[in-house]
Amino acid sequence: MTQITKDSVARVITFLEENKNRGGDVSLTDVMHLAEVMSGSMHDFLSNVQPAVTEELKAIAREITSMKEEISNLRANDMTASRIPDAGRELDAIVEATEDATNTIMEAAEEIMGADPDDHAAYQELVSGKMIEIFEACTFQDITGQRISKVVSTLNFIDERVSNFVERLRIPEELEAEIEETAEDVRKREQILHGPQHAGEGVSQNDVDDLMNDQSDIDKLFD
Amino acid sequence: MALDLQMPVLVVDDYKTMIRIIRNLLKQLGFEDIDDAADGTEALEKMKQRKYGLVISDWNMEPMTGYELLKQVRADADLSKTPFIMVTAESKTENVIAAKKAGVSNYIVKPFNAQTLKGKIEAVFDS
User: Fold this and answer.
1) B47 occurs within a structural domain
2) CATH number of the domain bearing residue B29
3) Which chain A residues contact residue B28 at CB under 8 A?
């Protein structure tokens, strides 16, 4: 690395020694002279250092440009303004559709349960009608399946872009900020709230069956 | 303790549909006096006003969970003997052990069927 030369330093020292006994008697011309001597001493140093500094600054600029490109590829505005709210609306619609279907099915079942079976003809007609209502209500499954696919697609979109971004940032794991436990986290820990458990990663009838099988394991704890 | 179909039963769940399902199953089993609450806080208030013969509670509710309700019921001298069945999707061993330590009478994992509910209720009153 380029250093200030001894000659440059010597010129500054000579100037200071020549003027050290002047006390407060310093004119603007003296100050200008000192500045001239000092800038002269720095000239060689700066002229050598400048290209290296310029290269560093250019490298930083390139990194910033690249980062801006990565951030742009994240399409954060698209995520927050469109995709995430859309996914939320899809989930709301799923909850609503399943709730409506459940209510329709339960109302039909309750009407059958409350009907008088002694009047065979009327009872048969009622059961047939309610069965049709139950079948109709079950059509929600097709639509909710499609809605779930859209939500999964959004999650994949976010996952892909965030993963790429993290990879390009090259942030070592040990530098990641520690996750602070929120009040909700504390509640979940203290109240032992894990939510439904699945044997696999996806929700399937086998998962439901596995949960049902868990019942026997629980029974053993009470034996 | 004998099973009495006339006894009042309190069903605690924050999901109205689940209350409706359990209520219908209990009716099918012959229970007639069925009350409900949307969380532990409401359940505790109802339990202090009326003596229930059986409590069937979900675990995950807000603000008071079924687990907290169970602990408070067992800590209350007037309520501590009330049979308490947990019906929940919380199916980790940790949950079952914690509920057992807190004094739960029996534990049913959702989803469940009428036969399981019937069997657990009978087991509580046979013991």
Assistant:
1) yes
2) 3.40.50.2300
3) 113
Compute the distance between CA of residue A127 and CA of residue A120 in angstroms, rounded to an integer: 10
B3 interface with A at CB cutoff 8 Å: no
Residue A52 pLDDT > 60: yes
- Angle value at C-alpha B90, between B88 and B91, nearest 5 degrees: 105
ipTM of predicted assembly, 2 dp: 0.81
- Domain membership flag for residue B33: yes
The domains of chain A are located at: 6-71, 75-171
Count of the separate structural domains present in chain B: 1
User: Which of A128-137, B43-52, B61-70 shows the lowest mean pLDDT across its residues?
Assistant: A128-137
d(CA B8, CA B32): 8
Q: Examine residue B123 and state whether it is found in any structural domain, yes or no.
A: no
Residue A13 one-letter amino acid: I
Tell me whether residue B97 is in a domain. Answer: yes
CB pairs under 8 A between A and B: 67
Question: Which of A98, A102, A112, A191 should be substituted to probe chain B, the one whose Cβ sees the most B Cβ atoms within 10 Å?
Answer: A191
Question: What residue of A is the nearest CA neighbor of B64?
Answer: A191
Residue B9 pairs with which residues in a beta bridge?
A: B34, B54
**Domain membership of residue B87 as a residue range:** 16-52+61-105
Distance to chain A for B98, nearest Cα, Å: 8
Best residue of B62, B91, B118 to probe chain A, by most A CBs closer than 10 Å:
B91
Look at the pTM and tell me if it is higher than 0.80.
no
